[in-house]
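Project standup — Tuesday

K.O.: blocked on the structure for the chain from last sprint. Re-posting the sequence here as requested.
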Amino acid sequence: MLKKLINCLLILTLIITAVPNGAAFALPSETENPQQEQLIHQQVIMGYFDVWKGSTWQDTNNDGDIDARGDKNKPTKPFTYTLEDKVKEGWTITRVEVQYPFSADDYVNAGGRMSDPAGNPLQSMMPYQRFKDNYLKYLPQSLSVSVASQDLVAGKAQVQWKLDLEYLDQNYSLDLTDSSNRTKIGYEVKDIEEMVEGWRWYLPGIIKWYAIPPTELPNIMVGEIEPGVTSGEAVPGTLYSANAEIVNESDQSFTNVPVAAYNNGWQAKVKDQSGNLVSTINLGPNETKVININYTAQDPTSAIKVVVDTAPLPETIEEQTKEDNVGEIEVLAKVADPPPMLGGDIKFKAVNQTGTITRPAGTAKWTDKVTATINPPAPKAPRGSITSWNITSATLTIPAKNPKFTFGNPLPPQGTKTLNMSTGGHSSSVTFQEDWAMDGAKIYNQVTQKMMAVTPKNYPITAKYTIHYTYEYQVKHRSCSKNSEGKRRCKTWYETKTGSGSTSGTLSGNLYVNGTGVNSRAQ
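H.V.: unblocked you, prediction finished:
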């Protein structure tokens, strides 16, 4: 049973959140040098040291030495403390200290991260008197604490206590054989042999982390960009003059800061407010300087990009961020008439007069009912993508029957006639009767004493159509505003817009006439 009770060095770290409700801690004074070392975090830490005796004293901490009553300057094994990343982020840790003894005020002040500017809510603390009654009553003699080792870059420190093993009684140490004490500290062992003794001392301290705050770097940024187009959309091929802000958000001055502008990837001319061509500019403390950009509007869009002190330019200033050193907008050109559409087809399907016989595709006989269907190509959006389209008008032009045409005298067609086709969808159709030719029927003209309509023939047929369409596109904008700290912040965002238009086209095909659908053997 005793072996089950003997642990290695028992150092239980108790993180005491010692902040009274409503307490607040001031940040370092604004008048202090921001580069001076500051206390950025402190907390109460609490360990304990147990010793056990059966027939003899035990080596409780497994250091090779018996933990006997009367031992002097007994060292504990180091315990590692790590500063949270969110606490030390951006700070350069300079040193770590651990304090004992400490006062009631020290205890209260160690309850929070003094440098936290985020305003996180403070938790309630264990009242100092309760803390004193629970822990400070059971302290070893000659207690001291120190930092055994530290890794400042990683934010780690090892803390070690030293103590004298004296005063094994209820006035100075906690009797672990007392069931009420075991219940109080959460000890799970129910039975302890009669000859076993166990005693606990608590090991308090306050660990303190010191650091130098982050260096506040300057920030150069691209602000608002005005395209210089005053009448809606730009006219392709026209020269325009845009203005862009270059902002220095710092108290420093900078000379020969590289700056450039691009139009669809091609470098544009940059001028200062005096009209001089420039590739660098000078910026005074907190100065906003406006540069002028000459560019030629392109169809359908001119992407104007302004760059300062970052790729593809040289970087001459170390900044907080380079993300806002580039600004972009889009300048839309007026939509030109779309080019004629290519593709699509016209198809012919014929049946005899009774609808009982279907002719091969693209062929018909005299007196057949022919359905012509057009399938125009989908239109292309001037910019963005098509969201909907339909045929709004369509006509079909076919050969016109010769006024003197008869079955015995099948004269060729004379002129043309135009038919209206259906509308409203992605295809259009109309049905007509092939009444103008019986080529391939081999009709003998008794009057002229000659054979007519000897061989089949292709007849050209043409369709014209108009399409209405809608489309959707996005426009890149850049806008800037000041935040609560008075700093300019810019963002690039996209606006979704819609447009509509119409286009037209022509489709042509051949109807192959091969004989007649009515004679003595009509089918």
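K.O.: great, moving the ticket to review. Residues 1-34, 112-123 have pLDDT under 50 and may be disordered. Residues 46 and 189 are 22 Å apart (CA to CA).
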